[in-house]
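User: Show me a protein chain along with its predicted structure.
Assistant: Here is one chain, sequence first, then structure tokens.
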Amino acid sequence: MKRAGILNRRLAGALAELGHGHEVLVCDAGMPIPDGPRVVDLAFRAGVPSFAEVLDGLLAELVVEGATAAEEIRAANPAATALLQGRFPDLALVPHERLKELSAGARLVVRTGEARPYANVLLRCGVFF
């Protein structure tokens, strides 16, 4: 058994398969999940695990070259806005409907137990060299 890092075998395996330019949607419990991408549903109950916990765990494992969130997050969820802007100074904001469209191209969807609105982000993978 692994001693550190991501222990969920499905998530660890899915992350190992990602390459440059692939996208990962990290979403709250209410985000519609598109057909097609691999889905790892971590939601246990409302708020568990939190969006912040899952995002920070993924950022410890991934190189991210860009991130996109819904512009509605600014008014509806200031805590998630601050979290994302703190981790991604160049965070791109698009209308929520556009984020849902873009999510269809994600390679992986990671669903959290977050129950606050618009706690969703689309991550674009980079390379470590």
